[in-house]
Design brief:
It is built from 11 helices and 12 strands. By secondary structure, it is α/β, with parallel strands linked by helices. The strands form 3 sheets. The chain has a 5-stranded parallel beta sheet with strand order 2-1-5-6-7, sandwiched between helices. The chain has a 4-stranded mixed beta sheet with strand order 4-3-10-9, covered by helices on one side. It has a 3-stranded mixed beta sheet with strand order 8-11-12. Helix 4 links the parallel strand 11 and strand 12. The longest helix has 20 residues. The chain is globular, with a radius of gyration of 19 Å. The protein starts with 6 loop residues before the first strand and ends with a helix. The chain binds NADP nicotinamide-adenine-dinucleotide phosphate. The site of NADP nicotinamide-adenine-dinucleotide phosphate (NAP) has 28 residues, from helix 1 and strand 9.
Length: 296
């Protein structure tokens, strides 16, 4: 166990600011690496706010040696552009904790991290960036990580912080369950509506059919998930506040590239690999992809 690990965080947006603030509160302030310069980071939560002193570094040349632990919270669509940060921050002794949606973090990070150990995570809390660049934390911070020896470095860093960490011996199943939730949230992009839309009988029926397709692919990939999962997920969406959005809808409405491939395309890709028909994905994925990337 390292006594005073050097901790960096790449991508100080909604999720990154939350983790940076949680670390700062207990005296483990990370070096913050971003795209846009900010003098400090501000997290608003139910009881107040936390200010993480900056500045946010914007030039990877400012990093002179690799770090022990690197949290990465850029969107998956921004990973290529973060390559210079990862090259500067990582070597084979580094642990990289990917704070991103999806089930493919290990393969996606491998080309960039100079042999570092990559730990995927499931991020369970909602947080949103406000127009003034502060972040509004809308739930209790919680991560699930795989139960592996390398996880101890992340656990030690987050111990005693406001961010709870669960370990899972069957991380693959947990990650796929979250992916199903993300995949069906993509339907909000196609309607331009928030969670309230799942209270419609026609949308909840469509969501169930789509989730059953996703479930078949998840199981073929090794996830252990029961037949009840699609209905449970629809029930959750029906209980959310009707105005609760999702980050992919926020990206769509702001005209930013969307994480359609890691949230929805992945089901179609893995379905093809496994020989599973994915008729719903075959309709949904091109619509999301074109909405994100154009042309037109
Ligand atoms: N937000 C949520 O509630 C939530 C919940 C669960 C999971 N997730 C997942 O968590 C991940 C992060 O999402 P988010 O909502 O936190 O995204 P976000 O708010 O858009 O934050 C992304 C951050 O990365 C920065 N960035 C972009 N390109 C960069 C680069 N080349 N180098 C360094 N920094 C760069 C952005 O800088 P700028 O300030 O310049 O844009 C921004 O600060 C995604 O995979 C998302 O799906 C999000």
């Amino acid at each position: 166990m390292l006594e005073n690990p050097r901790i960096a965080l790449v991508g100080p947006g909604a999720i990154g600011t939350t983790i940076a603030a949680a670390l700062h509160e207990v005296g483990r302030t990370p070096t913050v690496c971003g795209r846009t310069a900010h003098p400090q980071l501000i997290l608003r939560h139910d009881e107040g706010r936390i200010v993480v002193p900056g500045p946010v570094l914007t030039d990877p040349a400012d990093i002179k040696q690799p770090f022990d632990l690197v949290f990465v919270a850029v969107k998956t669509t921004q990973l290529d552009d973060s390559a210079a940060w990862l090259a500067a921050l990582c070597d084979e002794n580094t642990v990289v904790c990917a704070l991103q949606n999806g089930v493919e973090q290990k393969t996606q990070f491998a080309p960039y991290v100079s042999g570092a150990t990559v730990l995927p995570s499931v991020v369970w809390f909602p947080a949103q960036r406000e127009p003034d660049a502060s972040v509004w934390l809308r739930g209790k911070p919680r991560l699930t990580l795989p139960d592996t020896p390398e996880t101890s470095r992340v656990l030690a860093a987050l111990q005693g912080t406001r961010c709870e960490v669960d370990l899972s011996a069957d991380f693959l199943s947990v990650a796929w369950r979250k992916l199903l939730q993300n995949a069906v949230a993509g339907l909000m992009v196609l309607t331009g509506r928030r969670a309230g839309m799942f209270r419609r009988a026609d949308i909840s029926e469509l969501a169930l059919v789509y989730l059953r397709e996703c479930l078949a692919v998840a199981r073929a990939e090794g996830a252990t998930l029961s037949d009840d999962v699609p209905q449970e997920i629809v029930n959750h969406f029906q209980r959310y506040p009707i105005d609760l959005g999702t980050s992919i809808l926020a990206d769509r409405q702001a005209g930013r590239p969307m994480e359609w491939d890691i949230r929805n395309g992945v089901v179609q890709r893995y379905g093809r690999k496994q020989g599973i028909a994915t008729p719903l994905s075959d309709l949904i994925v091109p619509l999301l992809a074109a909405g994100s990337d154009g042309p037109g």
